[in-house]
Amino acid sequence: MALVVRDLAFAHPGREPLFRAATLRVEAGTVVGLTGPSGVGKSTFAALLAGDLRPASGEIQVDGRPLPRRGFRPVQLIHQHPELAVNPRWRMRSVLDEAGRPSRETLDRIGIRPDWLERFPEELSGGELQRFCIARALQPGTRYLVVDELTAMFDALTQAGIWHTLLDLVRDRGLGLLAISHEPALLDRVCDDQISIERLR
Ligand SMILES: Nc1ncnc2c1ncn2[C@@H]1O[C@H](COP(=O)(O)OP(=O)(O)OP(=O)(O)O)[C@@H](O)[C@H]1O
């Protein structure tokens, strides 16, 4: 069981190709770090894996099957800025219900207090909001998570709390995780393996 990328090519419209034959494998149950300087294509690669962008050529397979083009996405992407990832006009209860609300037990494990469900996004801190984005990404059909600078915006304590929660849940569910980060110390702590995006280009 693995998330497999083979010979993937992609260019943003009118730009030089960012990837010509990118190849990567993330085994289920492992955490792989993706590093690299700013602007080389890490977020673009994440969007390709999640199905938000289509490769020009090459393939992405999830546990032996092609990444579905519609319907539920087994590779879920969590962005750096949670406030941009939720509808500001919806209470958090509706944000979660749209995807299928996780059980109270799961919400407790993620550290989401019951009264937060009645709040609007602007009434939560960034760290609290990121916990909702994690909850929303952990659907029953989720097999792999891609996190793009998951905690770069938060203080050390919030960062540690969110990573602890995420790794715990990922381990329990046997998910694979691709963690994009600029922080070598963080990746050293959480990853089984690391790869530089330069090797994918
Ligand atoms: N929608 C887009 N249309 C055209 N070019 C884009 C688009 N999105 C990103 N780019 C360009 O593609 C390149 C890669 O961007 P990307 O955001 O994937 O890099 P990154 O490695 O994630 O950077 P950072 O670490 O700063 O977030 C950049 O040169 C960027 O300007």
UniProtKB/TrEMBL annotation:
InterPro entries: AAA+_ATPase (IPR003593), ABC_transp_ATP-bind (IPR050319), ABC_transporter-like_ATP-bd (IPR003439), ABC_transporter-like_CS (IPR017871), P-loop_NTPase (IPR027417). It holds the Pfam family ABC_tran. Residues 3-199 form the ABC transporter domain. PROSITE patterns: ABC_TRANSPORTER_1 (PS00211), ABC_TRANSPORTER_2 (PS50893). It comes from the Bacteria. Belongs to the ABC transporter superfamily. This is Peptide/nickel transport system ATP-binding protein. It comes from Microlunatus parietis.
